[in-house]
């Protein structure tokens, strides 16, 4: 049992209980803070359970990792194969790829970053250009033995 000291203020009357308690202390039943916490937790869970379950579902969707849809991967791979020598899509091409695949631009960007890291080896000519600070979109290119003044290149001779 917990006890608290009665504090008497001037001008305030006292009850019979106060007069009977010669020590000036009143006994209160012991309150278990863990029981209060459990009760509050159960109350909140009942009140917000629908909201919490929908929130859990939404968060689990965002954490979901895995492969992109097959048709989206096929479209990205088709673009990759056509542009293998310089697989850096322009912003316009990224928007078009996003629209045609149903992916967001961040997914498109990440796919190309990963694809280049895993599967692209620049040609020797391209490596020298990069080391020299040249960029194919703003320089006269030399690729496959052909100068390409417009910044584009041909896949064949």
Give the gist of this structure.
Belongs to the TALE/KNOX homeobox family. The protein is mainly alpha-helical.
Helical amount among residues, as a percent range?
40-55%
The CATH topology assignment of the largest domain is Arc Repressor Mutant, subunit A
Task: Work out the strand percent.
Answer: 5-15%
Distance from N terminus to C terminus (CA atoms, Å) equals: 96 Å
The largest sheet, given as strand count, sense and whether it forms a barrel, is: 2 strands, antiparallel
**Number of individual domains:** 2
CATH class of the largest domain: Mainly Alpha
SSE string, helices as H and strands as E: EHEHHHHHEE
What is the strand tally? 4
Structural class: mainly alpha
Query: What is the spatial order of strands in the main beta sheet?
Result: 1-2
CATH architecture of the largest domain: Orthogonal Bundle
- Overall geometry: elongated
Q: Which regions contain 5 or more consecutive residues with pLDDT less than 50?
A: 138-157
Rg calculated over all Cα atoms: 36 Å
CATH superfamily of the largest domain: Homeodomain-like
Q: Count up the helices.
A: 6
The mean pLDDT is 74
Describe this structure in words.
Residues 60-123 bind DNA. GO terms for molecular function: DNA binding; DNA-binding transcription factor activity, RNA polymerase II-specific. Keywords: DNA-binding, Homeobox, Nucleus. The strands form 2 sheets. The protein has a two-stranded antiparallel sheet with strand order 1-2. The protein is elongated, with a radius of gyration of 36 Å. Helix content is 53%, strand content 9%. Mean pLDDT is 74; it is low at 138-157. The N and C termini lie far apart (96 Å). Strand 3 and strand 4 (146-148) form a beta hairpin. Helix 4 packs across helix 5. The chain folds into 2 domains: 14-63, no CATH class; 70-148, Homeodomain-like (Arc Repressor Mutant, subunit A), CATH 1.10.10.60. It has helices spanning 16-20, 33-63, 70-82, 91-101, 105-119, 124-131; strands at 2-5, 25-28, 141-143, 146-148. The protein is built from 6 helices and 4 strands, in the order E-H-E-H-H-H-H-H-E-E. By secondary structure, the chain is mainly alpha-helical.
């Amino acid at each position: 049992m917990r006890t608290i000291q009665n504090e008497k203020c001037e001008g305030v009357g006292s009850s019979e209980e106060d007069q009977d308690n010669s020590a000036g202390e009143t006994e209160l039943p012991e309150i278990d803070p863990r029981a209060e916490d459990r009760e509050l937790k159960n109350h909140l869970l009942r009140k917000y359970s629908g909201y919490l379950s929908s929130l859990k579902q939404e968060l689990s969707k965002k954490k979901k990792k895995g492969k992109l849809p097959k048709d989206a991967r096929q479209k990205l791979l088709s673009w990759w194969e056509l542009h293998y020598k310089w697989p850096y899509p322009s912003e316009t091409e990224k928007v078009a790829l996003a629209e045609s695949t149903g992916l967001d631009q961040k997914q498109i960007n990440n796919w190309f970053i990963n694809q280049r890291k895993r599967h692209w080896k620049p040609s020797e000519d391209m490596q020298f250009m990069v080391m020299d600070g040249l960029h194919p979109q703003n320089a006269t290119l030399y690729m496959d033995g052909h100068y390409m003044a417009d910044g584009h290149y041909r896949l064949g001779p």
